[in-house]
Amino acid sequence: MTGLNALHGAACNEGAPGIHGQAFVMRNLFILMFMLAATVFVGIFVIVVVTTPTLYDKGMSVLPIAAGLGMALAVPVAWFVARAISRATQTGR
């Protein structure tokens, strides 16, 4: 085992049962999907605020609300997408 392989084995705990269990995979998928969904939803809401003249006039107070709504909407979307991906890619199915 080379030095690099030894470090990889130690970092990943190869051979340890359950180290990369379902909760670990689900959490990582959720974080990735949240980053993607939050970017999309915040972008959509900010574009709506910037392109609507009545909202644009109040931009300094409306933009943070739009960004917050986009992030709040991204949480359940990311959860459902991550759960669907996790279920679809489970071994043994």
How many distinct folded domains?
1
Percent of residues in helices: over 70%
Order of helices and strands, N to C?
HHHH
Content-based structural category: mainly alpha
Largest sheet: none
Give the tally of β-strands. Answer: 0
* Overall pLDDT score: 82
Estimate what percentage of residues fall within beta strands.
under 5%
Terminal Cα span: 34 Å
Low-confidence stretches: 13-17
Shape: rod-shaped
**Integer-rounded radius of gyration:** 20 Å
Number of helices: 4
Descriptive notes:
- This protein is an all-alpha fold and 93 residues long.
- The chain has one domain (20-88).
- The protein is 80% helix and 0% strand.
- It has helices spanning 3-12, 22-51, 53-56, 59-88.
- It starts with a helix and ends in a 5-residue tail after the last helix.
- 10% of the residues are buried.
- Residues 13-17 have low confidence and may be disordered.
Please provide a brief summary of the model.
The chain is mainly alpha-helical.
Secondary-structure map with pairings?
Layout: H1 3-12, H2 22-51, H3 53-56, H4 59-88
Key words describing this protein structure:
4 helices, rod-shaped, mainly alpha, 93 residues
